[in-house]
Design a protein that fits this description.
The protein contains seven helices and three strands. The chain has helices spanning 20-43, 53-58, 65-87, 98-108, 111-123, 176-179, 183-193; strands at residues 129-137, 144-152, 163-169. The structure holds manganese (III) ion (MN3).
Length: 200
């Protein structure tokens, strides 16, 4: 049985960038629903009881057909939100450092150029989904490469053999109460609460 993870901070901890009401509904209702529906789907297949969330997502094509879509949506939703909460801290580290900073500079030119490209990707996402900074490893050379991608719905990069580094929830439920239809303002506020010291 999967469980809703507790947040390490209060619902109002990200004010004024992300408001307390949005955080409360997002965590206690939306995220909880993904967990509940994931468990309901897995109830039908006790043979998967010892699969971790990581197993379910990286081996999504081995999940029985009758619950695969549910695991894709709700397992993805559970993983994506769990990662998202961990990245947020108003008083965190505002810029990447070390090897990751070097990779970002090498790939995108500069941190500002990376932010601009990520922002444009999130602005261009049609409908509901996520914008990601991911790492892909070339099967031939073994070289690690950074890339910005969008995924639809709750699809998680792990389902495509990609490693998520940061993820931004671009569903309207993540920002509508405070930012209404102004996704650009929400993305701007996201940069204020993204804590690079939490990025693994
Ligand atoms: Mn969400």
């Amino acid at each position: 049985m999967f469980e809703l993870p507790k947040l390490s901070y209060a619902y109002d901890a990200l004010e004024p960038f992300i408001d307390a009401k949005t955080m409360e509904i997002h965590h206690s209702k939306h995220h909880q629903t993904y967990v509940t529906k994931l468990n309901e789907a897995l109830d039908k297949h006790p043979e998967l009881a010892d699969w971790s969330l990581m197993d379910l997502l990286t081996k999504i094509n081995d999940v029985p057909q009758d619950i695969r879509k549910a695991v894709q949506n709700h397992g993805g939703g559970h993983y994506n939100h769990t990662l998202f909460w961990l990245l947020l801290n108003k008083d965190g580290q505002k810029q990447p450092s070390g090897e990751l900073a070097e990779s970002i500079n090498a790939t995108f030119g500069s941190y500002d150029a990376f932010k601009e490209q990520f922002t444009n990707s999130a602005l261009g996402l049609f409908g509901s989904g996520w914008t990601w900074l991911i790492e892909v490893r070339s099967q031939e050379s073994g070289v690690r490469k950074l890339q910005i991608i969008n995924t639809a719905n709750q699809d998680c990069p792990l389902m495509n053999g990609q490693t998520p580094i940061i993820g931004l929830d671009v569903w309207a439920h993540a920002y509508y109460l405070k930012h209404q239809n102004k996704r650009a303002d929400y993305i701007k506020d996201f940069w204020e609460v993204l804590d690079w010291s939490s990025v693994k």
